[in-house]
Amino acid sequence: MATYCLTVARLQLALGQGARRMHVSAAFSAKAKVSMSRFETTSYVNYEKLQSNIDIVRKRLNRPLTLSEKIVYGHLDDPHNQDIDRGRTYLRLRPDRVAMQDATAQMAMLQFISSGLPRVAVPSTIHCDHLIEAATGGPEDLAKAKDVNLEVYNFLASAGAKYGVGFWKPGSGIIHQIILENYAYPGVLLIGTDSHTPNGGGLGSICIGVGGADAVDVMAGIPWELKCPNVIGVKLTGSLSGWTSPKDVILKVAGILTVKGGTGAIVEYHGPGVDSISCTGMATICNMGAEIGATTSVFPYNHRMKTYLEKTGRGDIAALSDEFSHLLVPDEGCVYDQVIELNLDELKPHINGPFTPDLCHPVSEIGAVAKKNDWPLEVKVGLIGSCTNSSYEDMGRAASLAKQALDKGLKCKAQFTVTPGSEQIRATIERDGYSKILEDVGGVVLANACGPCIGQWDRRDVKKGEKNTIVTSFNRNFTARNDANPATHAFVTSPEIVVAMAIAGTLDFDPERDYLTSASGEKFMLEPPCGDELPARDFDPGQDTYQQPPPDGSSLRVDVNPQSNRLQLLEPFDRWNGGDLEDLQVLIKVKGKCTTDHISAAGPWLKFRGHLDNISNNMLIGAVNIDNDGINSIKNQLTGELGGVPDVARHYKANGLSWVVVGDDNYGEGSSREHAALEPRHLGGLAIIVKSFARIHETNLKKQGMLPLTFSNPDDYDKIRPDSKISIKGLKGFTPGTPLTGVVKHCDGSTDSLQLNHTFNETQIEWFQAGSALNRMKAMQ
Question: In 511-667, where do the E strands start and end?
Fold first, then answer.
């Protein structure tokens, strides 16, 4: 049988290579100013400082360090005196840079403007990727987005110019792919206002998703706080081969750890199996690590990363990484808090879902499981790309399967979309013929943007409420996330499996076992996918979509129209009144899973991300009310009438009634969007009481002056009724480690007293007392 491994040489394309990536390379020492690419505002690769801090900490702790610890502790603000205890203490860190996507950058920049500071203190960038709706195809959708979002893009571009933030224009690509191509490097500490920022761990970076207020701290030059993470080790042995892909590693790990098993931890991959995975494959694994609640994920520096750095115009950084490679791998004998072992020789293709990214199935078993659970077998749409799986290698392997189908006279039975991760990927796969193959098999190439992965999808083939199945190479598949249809069964898997199922048109197709029928009636099996890890002729950078900020933007103006429905300047939240919180009305008692998608939906709501009052109209509209199993239907305790959650919250606020939300486990999992914390605060909420929190959301709530509290006894959740009122006692003596007390008053006159735990440290208590972290920052100036 023929081998379908699409390389540029085999395709024999006579296309012009296009403009080569320009790169400023100069001799530099271990502490050197490096131009990361032609797009870069200056940054520093400072391995000498990293070495110094690591030496100080290693001497203090007197033990071998994991890679995660080396990079994190290597960025301590005060390595001599910092209290270091994994899982307990809060670290004060100095990240190297900040990245923001356009949906979260709006609020982050509005907060930075409110701080009164003249310019960012660390290299920072804005990336326009979230506001482009997928409808007909890349060029048309991009043109429409530029028109519809002109006000927002102009705001972000002008704010970036004034305050020294680089601006990646719409069409440039997805933030995480741009970071990997330009800004990530081994040993860097980067924070980004998106939960999938850990993508950079594929290049040996510690990249952590945060809310906008955290980004403001770093841009303001303030040490950034992070609870000292535990470290989960994933030891990889064997080698990837055949149909098994890097995506299968994280799909399997998600099945083991679940959506909350990584909370408070960095997942560190190690072992001999690492070398069988490409750099971009490692990035895929780290990207989806967000779905297990991990702080971030990381791989040790190796030759795969070196080659990727060289191919993306950063050979000087690769040489420096080689010189300091001892800093970029774990110490021998280091100890992990938990160890998972995976033999890649035995790992099979997997597919996870529906409705949660940790429901893990081998592809060979999904058909039987789907039939048992009455999940639709027909695949309506297959979607590849996104920040998780849009590398050159991903596209090449997908094209190798599409070429086999075309050679047999077949096209996809399902609808099929392709999302390039960046302009560089788009230009390169177009030059090398992959795009044409994917289009010929039935694919529609979408804009270089997030698109359907974050709900920016004008889907027309099914009606809302119609039960259907889609398969994607995305990272997240919460209810209604991709298309706003709660009846859509979304499954996440590798691009290769997506293509195979799109060709077959059914969820129960196992390419390792099942046959397809060619146009001539011949039975055949797809051969395992293959493709080049990196382009033989280097990357084509495509169009220049970067705006460099001027050296001095102090004379520039950033105007926000008071009548705008897209942008709104922020007003400071009220300070704590100095007393206990009395008689907070339960707004909603949430039943079951409540992600940030449930709290602050994306999709069409993204257009209001810069306008706090308007975006607040989506607060908790996806959460399930335990009182009636309804969505966006709660009882207004002042009127006795049913209403939408935001409407009732506004009514309570207008009548001077503060309120509280009660929730279940892992509340706020998913996206880093701080709007899920800003909206409750804006509409009069003061506390969120749940069984447990996802890391980013808990921090975001603290940043906005709210009280995220957990039941000391999770069974106390059952003691609270939808019409209860809760007083929170002990705030005058609010101190780290000391629980608060919740007094629950029921309508029948009975009461319950509950112990409520918190994770506030002294600085975070000051945020609460000031009304928000931003209020505290301004008071300190």
Answer: 516-517, 523-524, 546-547, 581-589, 624-625, 630-631, 634-635, 642-643, 659-662
Active-site hit among 43, 75, 96, 129? 129
Task: Indicate the burial class of 479 (C-beta count within 10 angstroms; 0-12, 13-18, 19 or more).
Answer: buried
Give residues with Cβ within 8 angstroms of 613, minimum separation 6. 568, 682
Tally of residues, the chain: 781
Q: Of the residues 172, 391, 671, 692, which is catalytic?
A: 671
695 carries an active-site annotation: no
Question: Which residues of the chain fall short of a pLDDT of 50?
Answer: 1-42
pLDDT tens readout for residues 568-621: 999 999 999 999 999 999 999 999 999 999 999 988 898 999 999 999 999 999
Q: Which pLDDT score, from 0 to 100, does residue 40 have?
A: 45
The helix/strand/coil state of 212 is: helix
63 included as an active-site residue: no
Rounded to the nearest integer, the mean pLDDT of the chain is 93
The sign of the torsion formed by the CA atoms of 470, 476, 478, 482 equals negative
CA gap 633, 8 in Å, rounded = 56
Show Cβ contacts of residue 668 under 8 Å, excluding neighbours closer than 6 positions.
594, 595, 596, 599, 676, 693, 694, 696, 697, 698, 700, 701
pTM: 0.91
Q: What is the pLDDT of residues 266-279, one digit of tens each?
A: 999 999 999 999 99
Annotated catalytic residue, options 194, 214, 508, 716? 194
Active-site entry in 127, 130, 651, 675 = 130
Q: Is 636 left (phi over 0), alpha (psi -120 to 50) or beta?
A: beta
Report pLDDT digits (tens) over 326-341.
999 999 999 999 999 9
Q: What are phi and psi of 132, to 5 degrees?
A: -100, 115
Active site residue 609: no
Whether 129 is catalytic is yes
